[in-house]
Design a protein that fits this description.
Helix content: 25-40%
GO molecular function: methyltransferase activity
Oligomer: single chain
Protein name: SAM-dependent methyltransferase
Keywords: Methyltransferase, S-adenosyl-L-methionine, Transferase
Pfam family, one: Methyltransf_25
CATH architecture of one domain: 3-Layer(aba) Sandwich
Order of helices and strands: HHHEHEHEEHEEEHEE
Length: about 200
């Protein structure tokens, strides 16, 4: 079945409305307990790849304040411009996560509220990309939907695409790419009902 047409409008939507998204997002930090759990698996001062980093607040800002070295990638140039203005000492790059190939590995990979904007087939292709950028022992934190399917929200008055695989398939994809699940919770009521995965690369 062909994905909903809104799947093709994610990047243009975040390019056009970066300032609006930033204003609505940066002071809301319900993710801190999960982010702290993720960081606890990393060495002090470790290198983190933030995939779909947005405008760097609040998640990247929290990591930078704790002396982690952040490389952020996002497909929206206005978002990356905001990142560079706020944290010029870190690395920020305009990139589509679906074709990401940085040629280096990291102690941690963060994909919060980003991968779930991809179609299900594109999500399947992300797991080898995660593996290619993960050092042995690297932590991976990402969000998904609770069940297989598509969901269409709204942002700036336009349809906003989300998709999810079945949780069983996420577990299979993680295992196939060398990750073990450390912790998983569907629709966490303490975190805005996000479905969250914390995993770690074996070996």
């Amino acid at each position: 079945m062909r994905p909903h047409p809104a799947a093709d409008n994610i990047i243009p939507l975040y390019q056009q409305h970066a300032a609006l998204w930033d204003a609505a997002r940066r002071d809301d930090f319900i993710e801190q307990p999960w982010l702290d759990a993720f960081l606890s698996l990393l060495p002090g001062g470790g290198q983190v790849l933030d995939i779909g980093c947005g405008a760097a607040k609040p998640l990247a800002a929290w990591m930078i304040a704790r002396r982690f070295d952040v490389t952020g990638v996002d497909a929206s140039p206005p978002m990356i411009e905001l990142c560079r203005a706020r944290f010029p000492q870190q690395r920020w790059q305009v990139a589509d996560m679906r074709t990401l190939a940085l040629g280096r590995t990291f102690h941690g990979l963060l994909a919060w509220d980003s991968v779930f904007h991809l179609t299900r087939e594109a999500q399947r292709q992300m797991f080898p990309i995660f593996r290619a950028h993960a050092r042995p022992g690297a932590a991976l934190l990402f969000t998904s939907g609770p069940a297989d399917g598509e969901a269409i929200g709204t942002f700036a008055g336009q349809p906003l695409y989300h998709a999810s695989l079945d949780p069983v398939e996420y577990r299979q994809l993680l295992a196939q790419n060398g990750f073990r699940v450390v912790r998983q919770q569907s629709e966490d009521p303490t975190c805005g009902h996000h479905t969250i995965w914390l995993a770690q690369r074996q070996g």
